[in-house]
Each structure stands twice: as structure tokens, then as C-alpha cells.
Amino acid sequence: MFSNRKEISVEWGDCDPAGIVYYPRFFEYFDSCTNALFEKAGFRKPELLKKYGLLGIPMIDTRAQFYAPASFGETVVVESRITDWGRTSFQVEHKLYKGERLAAEGTEKRVWTVRDTTAENGIRSEPIPQEVKDKFEK
Amino acid sequence: MFSNRKEISVEWGDCDPAGIVYYPRFFEYFDSCTNALFEKAGFRKPELLKKYGLLGIPMIDTRAQFYAPASFGETVVVESRITDWGRTSFQVEHKLYKGERLAAEGTEKRVWTVRDTTAENGIRSEPIPQEVKDKFEK
Amino acid sequence: MFSNRKEISVEWGDCDPAGIVYYPRFFEYFDSCTNALFEKAGFRKPELLKKYGLLGIPMIDTRAQFYAPASFGETVVVESRITDWGRTSFQVEHKLYKGERLAAEGTEKRVWTVRDTTAENGIRSEPIPQEVKDKFEK
Amino acid sequence: MFSNRKEISVEWGDCDPAGIVYYPRFFEYFDSCTNALFEKAGFRKPELLKKYGLLGIPMIDTRAQFYAPASFGETVVVESRITDWGRTSFQVEHKLYKGERLAAEGTEKRVWTVRDTTAENGIRSEPIPQEVKDKFEK
């Protein structure tokens, strides 16, 4: 199955007074990993947005579980893959490892989103092009 | 039931190129709201940590759902309360409103955590003092 | 002279493993204070951008000096004012106090910036409208 | 002269509604580059702190100038070096390039800092060990 592995160096500025990663930063890590997953499939984010007229792929539901803390100076590896394609949304799964140990997991549900000035929030979902989905099947 | 309401101004720097709050910032909002909830119960975080010898109250499981975007210049209100007390962990619920509209929800499971140099990660959980729980029953 | 005072609560997530504000966060504080200064003058950022077709007021030169650390749970007050108006740029000064004590200072030079697809970076400066400057003279 | 080059991928979450790097993030970049410079000299930050009983190397004065914007999807390179060693402080210079173009510059003055519960802020400076300085002369 198509997936991506991304190494992330935990920075001093990612950590809180307890000396461990401030948990919202893990969501920043996961977001960059989703972008890296798309890039591996051939869609760098700037071009993805331009080609499909996307505003972005905003999050509508995300959960993370933390099993072991990480601290500055450590390098973690995140394995990411798309676990489900819907018509206008998709799900991503991230597994974050410290060495062999699974230290955190994240799941995401995101929506293929375009601007629409007539919509309630100025944005609306749109069907995900089949050619995008196909690139993740390789 | 004991709860807290906190107003948050969405800052320019909280928003991404789509012009809406970058979703990891919502977790920063929620984290500050949990701290504000404890403060309302009489436990400012610096004194909480000092009094109970805590390293912190790290997150082990959190989920957020986003129903409507928020943008810079908007003010949102977050209602927070503790929904469950376990022996060493507790759950928090946040509801984020734009005006009357529920725009996002978050749930958290956190652990009462102390340093322990003999433990695997240098930290371990500890029973939450009854006097802490009692303050949230008022 | 026209100025603004803004109270900022130092959050747990603003602090680093040394337990003090991670210094890039001070720049986030200062940025929100510049926006608050404009808001006090009658220009909330969303309307400012819309009214004048601005991309933003990006920074071209900023310096900060830190005299005393701040930590989570503390409240600081930032006094901000515009110290100079140029044709297309302006300077802002921030003084951050912990109680009576000056704990940090920041200066900014920002540019009145619009999109221009023919320009090298896709953006260019534009003269600051006199009506904007006038609002800060009151 | 001893220096380090570090590649940084500009992330979506580093950028603001103008679509360009939110300038406080450049200070996060520079901070990670200072840590990378020390690491290249043989001092990974966790070990540096432990070996010398340091609280950290907090910033007391920093300035950055921005010549060209950077946006998500771009990779920048930062060249960093120490330009001056004082008794208890030192200066760092960063040059951030987009391709051949100098897009930003930063300077830092940091202090070798230890905890001291008898000091006014609970911290004080200490002379920088000669062996540390020596490693940057190689």
C-alpha cells in the first residue's frame, strides 16, 4: 500500500516546560506528513492547490493518541498512508515511531475544499478527482 | 456542573494560507482553556505543578471535530468542563462557539504526571488528589 | 501620542523546556499588538485588508531585546505605538512590562503591501493612505 | 570559518493568510539553526545542557531583516556561524537563501545561562567554557 516515511527532528521550540513535545506540535508534524504523502504521490501542495483550484484540504475530524513522550534532540519517524477515499473526503493515518517503538498515532478526516462565495462559510467541498486517487494506488 | 467560558481572539498568526485557523492552533486554544478551567477551580498552573510536584498533565488521547472555519479578527468562545475523573487520568470537553454556532468540539484525556527517574520514560502517573477533584464539584 | 496597551497571558504552550517564553513567541505577541493598535485606530485587520486591497503589512526589519524572562501563568502588558510613518512603510515600537518592569522591547518596520502579479515576488509596496495615518494622530 | 548549512522546508503551517512565512517562524528557523550549528560542533542540545548544567542559551537581543518572502513548498538554506564570543555571551549570524538569493538575515546575542535560585529571575549567566569555544575554531 502506498505510504510515506518522514523523519522529523524534534526541536527545542516544539517542547514545553515539561521538556517534552507540546502535543499541538504533533498535529503540525502530522499535517506536514500528509503534505509529504501527497508530494510523494506527485502532488506538491502549491501545485495541488493551483491545478485543482483548491483552497486546501482542511481537517474536519482528527484524533491522536500518545503512548510515549518525545523530547528535543530526538528524531522520530512518521509513517503515513491514506486509509479511505470518500467522494469529497479522505482519511489519513499516521504512526509515529521512536526507534522501534510506536510513540503516537494520528488519524485525520479531510475534505477536498474549494472557495464558493455563495456558500455559507465561503467554502464548499467538491468531488476528489479520480486521477488524484489513482496516484495513491500505485 | 462546573465549567469555564473563555473568549479567544483569532489572531492573524493563527491562520494559514487558506485564511482560516490552522487546525493545530485549535489544540493550543483547547490547552489554554483546560488551564483556564483549572484556574477557575483555584489551581493556576504554576502553583498546581509546584503544590503537587507535577511535571504536568500531558495528553494521552485527544480528538477534535471542526464544523465551521474561523478566521482572523473573529472572537470565539470556548466552554470547557471535566466530564470524567479517573484514578490517575481525567477527561475534558471543549465546545467552541462562533456566536451561537458550535464551530468545533474537542475532547481530551490527560494524566496526572510526576517525574520518576526510575520509570521507563522518566515520568509516571499518580493518583489525582481528592481535594483537586472536589474543587470541580462546587 | 496614540498608543495601545494590550494584556497578554503567557500560556504553557508559549514556554520552552527552560520554562520561559520561547523567544519567537514574543514576536507573535508583538504582531498581535500591532494588529490591536490598528484596531484601536479603527482598522480591524480583516476590514483593513479588504478596504485597501492589502495583502498584508509584512515585516521587513524587526529587532527585540529581552531584559527579563516571562513564564506561564504570568500576565504581561505591551504598550505599542507607531514611531514613524514613511511613504510606503512605517515603524512600530513595543514595550513589554511585567508589572512595573520593562521586560522586553521590540521594534518593527513594516510595508504597506498589495498583490501585483507583474512584480518580482508577486507583491509590491504602495503609498500608505493619508486617512490611515491621520487616524493615529488623534 | 566554522559554519553550518541547514535546509528547511517551508511548511503550510508556517505560512499566514498572505501565503508567505509568518515572520515569527523565521525566528524558529534561526533557533533550530543555532542548535544545528552547535550540534555540528559536537554539542547536541540535550547533552550540552546536561554536561554544563545549562538551563539554556536564551536570547537577549535579536534582529532579522527580510528581503524576499518565502512560501510553502519552497526549500530554503540557512548558513549560520558564530561571529563573536564574549565571556558569558555570544553572537550568531544567519543568512537564509532561496536558491542564490539572500532572502533574510538574522543576528542573535545569546547568554550562557544556568539556574540560580538566589538570582533575581532564578537564572544567571556564567562564563562560557573555553573548550566549547575551541570546538568552533576548528
SSE topology sketch:
4 copies of one chain form a homotetramer.
Chain A lengths: L3 E6 L13 H18 L4 H8 L1 E3 L2 E8 L8 E11 L3 E10 L2 E11 L1 E3 L7 E3 L4 H6 L3
Antiparallel strand pairs in A: 1-4, 2-7, 3-6, 4-5, 5-6, 7-8
Helix and strand content put the structural class of chain A at alpha+beta
Molecular shape of chain A: globular
Largest sheet of chain A: 5 strands, antiparallel
Strand order of the largest sheet of chain A: 1-4-5-6-3
Work out the strand percent of chain A.
35-45%
Radius of gyration of chain A: 16 Å
How far apart lie the N and C ends of chain A?
A: 8 Å
Poorly predicted regions of chain A are none
Describe, in plain words, how this protein is organized in 3D.
- The structure is a homotetramer of 138-residue chains.
- With 138 residues, chain A is of the alpha+beta class.
- Chain A contains three helices and eight strands.
- Chain A has helices spanning 23-40, 45-52, 130-135; strands at residues 4-9, 54-56, 59-66, 75-85, 89-98, 101-111, 113-115, 123-125.
- In chain A, strands 1-4-5-6-3 form a five-stranded antiparallel β-sheet, with helices on one face.
- Chain A starts with a strand and ends with a helix.
- Chains A and B meet through helix 1 and strand 3 of A and helix 1 and strand 3 of B.
- Strand 3 of chain A pairs antiparallel with strand 3 (59-66) of chain B.
